[in-house]
Design goal:
five-stranded mixed beta sheet, alpha+beta, single chain, 20 strands, Immunoglobulin-like, 3 domains, 258 residues
Length: 258
């Protein structure tokens, strides 16, 4: 028994040597070594550089010149903006200096307020015959050295079809023309109507018909609209051509008069 007690005494004495307890050195030191790097990472996160991390659109397709021709973009950043806010720059391509734009942001930059991580900007589209429809456009958001891009497709308001009924008859009758667009037009849109035989085919009602007309669309106009046509008498069979013009696009139809 005395030998066992002596052995235990030697072990305890070794553990409490001048360098301190063995388990304190083995357990405590690694804990401090793990915590220091974690604190440094947290501090870097708090001091992080603002970056654009997301860019989304409320829809990916739009018709320029239509009643609903704008797109809303939402930009997001990695951390809440500081007291001065975070200013994000926007641009849209393609863009030709001489031809102008097909789509462009209503403002060139948006400042995200303090404490916020996102903001919106409206992208306006305008009919431009220089660009063949449909055209794929790219929206770019920039903040410092970071960028995000997203594509969207812009079609343009177009005349799908135009018919006049009846399309044939003896002189001295009235007809109804129907103009069909690819989308409901924006308020204020106009469509010009002309005839290559204004002495035979005129627009309006009997007694007040004109050689040309302008169809004006309002906020309630749909994609289809009608217009009255008056056909006069002719000494011999005649074929008249009616032409509709919308944003330099043309569509024609014919009336045969006997």
């Amino acid at each position: 028994m005395s030998r066992i007690l002596s052995a235990i005494t030697l072990v305890i004495a070794a553990l409490f040597a001048a360098d301190g307890p063995v388990w304190a050195a083995e357990i405590s030191q690694p804990n401090f070594e793990i915590k220091r790097p974690k604190l440094e990472i947290d501090q870097l996160k708090l001091k992080g550089i603002l970056q654009v991390t997301s860019l989304t659109l409320d829809r990916a397709e739009v018709v320029a010149g239509s009643a609903n021709s704008n797109i809303t973009a939402t930009v997001g950043i990695n951390i809440p903006a500081s007291a001065n806010g975070a200013t994000v720059q926007f641009s849209v391509s393609p863009f030709h200096a001489e031809a102008g734009a097909l789509a462009l942001p209503e403002v060139s930059s948006v400042t995200i307020p303090q404490g916020r991580t996102s903001a919106t900007v409206r992208i306006r589209t305008v009919p431009n015959p220089i660009y063949p429809p449909p055209t794929v456009c790219t929206l770019t958001a920039r903040l410092g050295g970071s960028t995000r891009t997203i594509n969207f497709t812009v079609d343009q308001l177009q005349i799908r079809s135009m018919i006049v009924l009846p399309a044939t008859g003896f002189g001295g009758f009235t007809a109804t023309g129907t103009l069909t667009l690819n989308a409901a037009p924006a308020a204020g849109t106009t469509d010009a109507l002309t005839s290559d035989h204004p002495d035979v085919v005129r627009f309006g009602t009997i007694g007040s018909a004109q050689s040309s007309a302008s169809l004006s669309f309002n906020a309630n106009s749909g994609a289809i609209t009608n217009f009255p046509v008056v056909v006069g008498s002719v000494p011999q069979s005649t074929t008249a051509t009616i032409k509709a013009t919308l944003f330099k696009q043309e569509k024609t139809t014919q009336i045969s008069v006997k």
